């Protein structure tokens, strides 16, 4: 799989019209539906990389250059994290931990341990769920209106 800033975690053969992964997947990371992957590469509009949740497939594999994680569901609402990582709120935390000016072929130089050390200020789980559901409903409404106007 690969991460598309617009489409999330997608099948790379469909996205690139070819396989770019190695045939040997031993060093790749398994990502399950509902888990997140962080691509540390710069992407247009995403200067600190892209974080997306897998929801289109039951599971997939991603490059070991990605950081894969799962939220602690009794503390953090997954849909809230989707909204949070689409915002710029986490950028200041990443910028504090990334090696100054260290980009290797467009990859941000940040270790998984530093990524997991970022501070997240979170509201109550109930409020997170409400925020996550609000934006999910809004996305669905936008999609419906786009479909109707076609």
Report on the structure:
By secondary structure, the protein is of the alpha+beta class. The protein has a single domain, classed as DNA methylase specificity domains (Adenine-n6-DNA-methyltransferase TaqI, Chain A, domain 2), CATH 3.90.220. It contains 5 helices and 9 strands. It has helices at 12-16, 78-86, 91-97, 112-115, 125-148, and strands at 2-4, 8-10, 29-32, 36-39, 50-53, 59-62, 67-69, 103-104, 107-108. The chain has a 3-stranded antiparallel sheet, covered by helices on one side. A hairpin with a 3-residue loop joins β1 (2-4) and β2 (8-10). α2 (78-86) packs across α5 (125-148). The longest helix is centred in the C-terminal third of the chain and has 24 residues, at 125-148.
């Amino acid at each position: 799989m690969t991460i598309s800033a617009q489409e999330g975690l997608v099948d790379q053969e469909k996205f690139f019209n070819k396989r770019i992964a190695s045939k040997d997947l031993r060093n790749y990371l398994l990502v399950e539906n509902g888990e997140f992957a962080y691509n540390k590469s710069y992407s247009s509009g995403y200067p600190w990389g892209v974080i997306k949740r897998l929801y289109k497939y039951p599971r997939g594999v991603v490059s070991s250059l990605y950081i894969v994680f799962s939220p602690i569901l009794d503390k953090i609402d997954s849909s809230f994290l989707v909204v949070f990582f689409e915002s710029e709120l986490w950028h200041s935390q990443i910028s504090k931990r990334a090696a100054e000016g260290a980009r290797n072929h467009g990859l941000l130089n940040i270790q998984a341990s530093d990524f997991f050390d970022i501070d997240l200020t979170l509201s109550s789980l109930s409020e997170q769920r409400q925020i996550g559901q609000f934006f999910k409903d809004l996305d669905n409404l936008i999609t419906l209106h786009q479909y109707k106007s076609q």
